[in-house]
Amino acid sequence: MKIPFVDLSREASSISDELINITSKVINSGQYVFGPHLDLFEEQFAHYCNVKFAIGVGNGSDALVLIMKSLGIGPGDEVICPANSFIASAWSIVAVGAKPVFCDVENDFLISLENLNQLVTKSTKAIMAVHLTGKLCDMNKLTKFCEVNELFLIEDSAQAIGAEDSNNKKAGSFGVAGAFSLHPLKNLAVYGDGGVVTTNSPELSDKIMKLRNHGLVNRDKCLVWGLNTRLDELQAAYALVKMKYIENWTKRYISIAKKYSKNISNKVIKPKTRFGYRDVFHNYIIIVPEEIRDELMSKLLALGVDTKIHYPIPLHLQPCSSSLGYKEGDLPKAERLSKSMISLPIYPLLEEKEINYVVDVLNELIDQFIK
Ligand SMILES: *Cc1c(COP(=O)(O)O)cnc(C)c1O
């Protein structure tokens, strides 16, 4: 059996009639940037996340940039983000001219509150909470921490659409604003790039609506220097189609994760869920002894199971971060995790027999490697 780490065509072909219909509808409408599909998608997305405003933008990275720009974060400011994340979390901070300050992470891959305490300076303006793997950070503690220290709390929710805490409060509704990605690899995905900003603040929403469209207030007048980063009508239409399925697909991610957790050997560390929380398992990551990780992955691949690492190089050790002055050993937990984690295939249209095969092959290898 061959199990790809992702197979985007499965999901697409399961709804291809709807996608083709809506494509011709948009093409025949003559309206391609700003239009009824974007309006309706924004309304539905806001409703889904239980926030007042959702603003469709070009991608998740720009969503983060727009949030920070609208908060006035720029040169001279520092923003703290976790060292284990996708590069865009840090890039967006650099893109507004601010300085990323990297925080260590805990075994759940989320920002370490313990380390956070040591990183706040006079220049710190915001904390970027990344809900990595579709698991919410401890938003109660982070909210209090940000209140006490007078910092903005920004949610990088790119991997966490639909994640909830024990009060059914959703990712993107805790902080001053949330950034989502609609990239093909994310849980709610379009057929190209796309992103969304969520917020309950009318002022921020207003600013971001202008900033995503050059800073224009109308056709002719430009209030501030902005970006060109919009969710176009075609992608908004695809996102609308997918909104119908997001709950079912999310449940499927969760049920696959449950199967993995129930059946994968206890000799490796598996994700833990907190009582009442809904983690949406954008990734399902196990932790194995460092010295066997790479060989385990290549043996899995040889047996048809493709796995990945999220992420193999912590942000503070990326070559592009070199001018920030970090060195190996600075953020030991993130560094250790980067050498011991493995992401298993997880997507809604993964079949039962494939899930079982992943479990069987993995358990067999684990028994060989770990006595
Ligand atoms: C994907 C992702 C982003 C960036 O989203 P794009 O739409 O690819 O720009 C940002 N942060 C995290 C954690 C992501 O996974």
Largest sheet strand order:
1-7-6-5-4-2-3
Write down the secondary-structure element order. HHHEHEHEHEHEEEHHHEHHEH
The global form is globular
Structural class: alpha/beta
Largest sheet: 7 strands, mixed
The bound ligands are:
pyridoxal-5'-phosphate
Q: Fraction of residues in helices? A: 40-55%
Distance between the termini: 27 Å
The share of residues in extended strands comes to: 5-15%
Q: Ranges with pLDDT <50 over ≥5 residues?
A: none
Please provide the count of β strands.
9
Number of contiguous helices: 13
Give average pLDDT, whole number. 98
| Cα Rg | 21 Å
Describe the structure.
This protein is α/β, with parallel strands linked by helices and 371 residues long. Helix content is 40%, strand content 12%. It has 13 helices and nine strands. The chain has a seven-stranded mixed sheet with strand order 1-7-6-5-4-2-3, with helices on both faces. Strands 8-9 form a two-stranded antiparallel sheet. Strand 4, helix 7 (139-149) and strand 5 (152-156) form a beta-alpha-beta unit. Helix 2 packs antiparallel against helix 9, helix 3 crosses helix 9 and helix 11 (290-302) packs parallel to helix 12. The model has no long low-confidence stretch (mean pLDDT 98). Bound molecules: pyridoxal-5'-phosphate (PLP). Pyridoxal-5'-phosphate is lined by residues 59-61, 85-86, 88-89, 130, 156, 158-159, 181, 183, 193, 195.
Based on the model shown, name its key terms.
single chain, alpha/beta, seven-stranded mixed sheet, two-stranded antiparallel ribbon
